[in-house]
Amino acid sequence: MSNNNTKALKSGIWYTAASFLTKSIGLITTPIFTRMLSKAEFGAYNNYTSWLAIFTIIVTLYLDSTFISARFDHEKDFDGYVFSSLALSSVSAAVWFIIINVFNDTATDFLGINRLYMNCMLTYLVFLPAVHMYQTRERYYYQYKKTVFISLLLSASTAFGSVLMVKNLSNRLTGRIFGSALPTIVIGMVLYVLIALKGKHIKLEYWKYALPVCLPFIPHLLSMSVLHNMDRIMITKICGEEQNALYSLAYSCGAIITLLITSLNSAFSPWLGEKLHKDETEEVRKFSRIYIAAFMYMAAGAMLITPEILLVMGGKPYLEAMYVMPPITCGVSFQFMYTMFVNVEQFKKKTIGMAVASASAALLNYVLNAVFIPRFGYVAAAYTTLAGYVWLLAAHMLLVRWLGYGKVYDYRFVAVVAAGMLAITAGVNWIYRYSPVRYAAVGVYAVVTVFIAVKYGKMMLEKLRKMKKSKA
To answer: What letter would DSSP give residue 408?
Structure first.
């Protein structure tokens, strides 16, 4: 294996591990906050983070999503492109800062978030892109050490700072929100300066390149964010903050799989881009079967131990949310699969179809929520979200086939796995009522896991090594 390929492999492994570990720290601290905050405060914080996820897309424009193609199209001045993208993101943040403060009363009534928290959010969104763009730039050059260090520093300071501020401020909700924002603001300031020193100049031609790529992508991301977060927003309005706390904890537990998706995709998407650039689709097709199967196996295991997860994360007051977990876990499994197809669409810079698919899924989710949450409560939201993910997987599979990349992934295999996950979801929800049956299933799963690790461990590691091997 060449030196460059060795660096690519090492960078991918380290970045995936660090990204997953650091983002998991937020989940690890959840048991602390469920006990430090009341259910109403925990629900209010999750309402804030739901809107934060939506505003992150609108304000930052997610310009780092253009890097997958820009690193080839502007290879000679990629640092200049990164700095120009960061400057454009800052202009957008400034515009939104003015809008929110001019129309503060309307924004507060609509969002259910006061002015102090909104300004904290917008300040955070000025510097968050600096963190994301710096890490993305370093990842493309396989400079994993600085990225890992920043990730660890950011996650540790956020976790420690949040606990400290919740404990010492009289308003615990304020402490939770400020504690989660300040470390990113401080670190983002430093990285902003470093990006500026590397980039040196801002070119409007880079804005003209980026906007046609990212603007059609924004409706997709926004729709996806609505799909992820509208449940909690609507539950808060329809059922109240305490019911939102129950749903949010279950969603946060399921989010460990979403973190795994993000971490894996951070390593997978650059590799996929290189393979598509070289037209090495058969290698992608072969690896993707193992990739998908391994992920689904882990997701099924998470479903089986849901009650134990909830007891650890929130205690007995949150245990009733166990029936929310299987459909949420199944939903993020579908998210994992359609993200692989989205990567192809991003590489081809064909984001309009992506936006239409996501917008239609978000609309479907909203309509189903409006119909079923008032009738069946917060549990219904998990199933409406799952329906949206099923729709998205089907839509993106069709879009990639339409782009002429239908041979990149095994469509029949994906369909079989998707059907299997739906069946497992129904089965796991049923065995929650019969503890001996569930314990037996957990035992069988553990035995099978050990068998797979012993018999196929070396082969799986070899497949991982070959993932980064170039045939050029």
So the answer is: S
Which one, of 257, 241, 227, 231, lies nearest residue 379 by Cα?
Answer: 231
Q: What angle do CA 347, 348, 351 make, to 5 degrees?
A: 95
Q: Enter the tokens of residue 113.
A: 């978030």
N- to C-terminal Cα distance for the chain? 12
56-76: pLDDT as tens digits: 989 998 888 788 778 778 878
- What pLDDT digit, counting tens, does each position of 83-127 carry? 999 999 999 999 999 999 999 888 888 887 888 999 999 999 999
Q: State the Cα–Cα distance between residues 267 and 337, nearest whole angstrom.
A: 15
Specify whether the CB–CB gap between 178 and 58 falls below 8 A: no
pLDDT above 90 as % of the chain: 22
Residue 262: closest CA among 44, 7, 27, 10: 27
Sequence-distant (6+) residues with CB within 8 A of 224 are 358, 361, 362
Distance (Å, whole) CA 200 – CA 202? 7
Instruction: State which amino acid sits at residue 301.
Output: G
> What whole-number distance in Å separates Cα of residue 225 and Cα of residue 247?
17
**CB-CB neighbours of 446 under 10 Å:** 12
DSSP output for 310-334 = HHHHT-GGGGGGGGGHHHHHHHHHH
Nearest of 234, 229, 268, 262 to residue 57 by alpha carbon? 229
Q: Please name which of 60, 395, 50 lies closest in space to residue 255, comparing C-alpha atoms.
A: 50
Q: How far apart are CA 155 and CA 411, in angstroms?
A: 38
Q: Which two three-digit tokens encode residue 109?
A: 């009534």
* Tokens matching residue 138: 């370093």
* 296 alpha carbon, distance to own chain's centre: 17
The torsion defined by the Cα of 49, 55, 57 and 58, in degrees rounded to 10, comes to 170
Residue 272 CA to residue 278 CA, distance in Å, equals 10
Q: Is 410 exposed, middle or buried (0-12, 13-18, 19+ CB in 10 A)?
A: middle
The answer to whether 240 and 112 are in contact (CB under 8 A) is no
Indicate the SS3 state at residue 63: helix
